[in-house]
């Protein structure tokens, strides 16, 4: 199964340059990297990145995260994937830009929300 991380353009640029990602400021505050399932990703974008352009969606196969990945109760009582280690560039299966639709909501690739 794929899990997803939404990054800002500067975060993605630094991630590409260094090959590792310690997390966003919110991740660092919480002590883990916040990830989402395909079903959760649009809600995450709406809550934390509303109206923000220049975002990148990184897809990660959960199998490559091994024991660093934990499923924990979060927003609305749902289980969310949380990563308790750095994310490495080789962990990422693919990346796509998240564009804003006419209504101001982020438009996700079909394979994410299907």
Structural account:
This protein has 114 residues and is an alpha+beta fold. It has a single domain, classed as ADP-ribosylation fold. It is built from four helices and nine strands, in the order E-H-E-H-E-H-E-E-E-E-E-E-H. It has helices at 9-18, 25-30, 41-48, 110-113; strands spanning 2-8, 20-21, 33-34, 55-61, 69-73, 79-83, 87-88, 92-100, 106-107. The strands form three sheets. The chain has a four-stranded antiparallel β-sheet with strand order 1-4-8-9. Strand 5 (69-73) and strand 6 form a beta hairpin. The mean pLDDT is 94.
Secondary structure blueprint with pairings:
Elements: E1 2-8, H1 9-18, E2 20-21, H2 25-30, E3 33-34, H3 41-48, E4 55-61, E5 69-73, E6 79-83, E7 87-88, E8 92-100, E9 106-107, H4 110-113
Antiparallel strand pairs: 1-4, 2-7, 3-6, 4-8, 5-6, 8-9
Assembly context of the chains: single chain
**Main sheet overview:** 4 strands, antiparallel
What strand order characterises the main sheet? 1-4-8-9
Would you identify the CATH H-level superfamily? Protein of unknown function DUF952
Q: What is the helical fraction, as a range of percent?
A: 10-25%
Label the CATH architecture. Alpha-Beta Barrel
